[in-house]
Amino acid sequence: MKIMRRIGASPRERGSLPDGTRPDIFELSDGNFAVIDTEATAALDKQLPPHAARADYERIVIISRETLLRAKRDIPEQ
């Protein structure tokens, strides 16, 4: 598995201060996506609806609205 490309604008292009780090979205060589942002499992885990589940190795990550909206144009339809 390798990072193939960034999805959406870079943190620096979105004005992430002070050092241009996070949030970020990447497309992986296997077709999946990787996200860098704020880990919020402890805060949100007990709020998951009954039909949602999280494995022990999975984490809940918050992605800012701006990050996801600016990535939308780069997300493939299929």
The spatial strand order of the largest sheet comes to 1-2-3
Q: What's the multimeric state?
A: single chain
Q: What is the H/E order?
A: EEEEHEH
Number of helices: 2
Q: What overall form do the CA principal axes indicate? A: globular
Q: What does the average pLDDT come to?
A: 88
Ranges with pLDDT <50 over ≥5 residues? Answer: none
Q: What is the helical fraction, as a range of percent?
A: 10-25%
User: Structural class of the secondary structure composition?
Assistant: alpha+beta
Largest beta sheet, briefly?
A: 3 strands, antiparallel
Query: What share of the residues does DSSP label as strand, in percent?
Result: 15-25%
What does this structure look like?
- By secondary structure, this protein is of the alpha+beta class.
- The protein has helices at 41-44, 65-71, and strands spanning 3-6, 24-28, 33-36, 38-39, 61-62.
- The protein is globular and about 35 Å long.
- It starts with a strand and ends in a 7-residue tail after the last helix.
Strand and helix layout:
Layout (H helix, E strand, L loop, with lengths): L2 E4 L17 E5 L4 E4 L1 E2 L1 H4 L16 E2 L2 H7 L7
Antiparallel strand pairs: 1-2, 2-3, 4-5
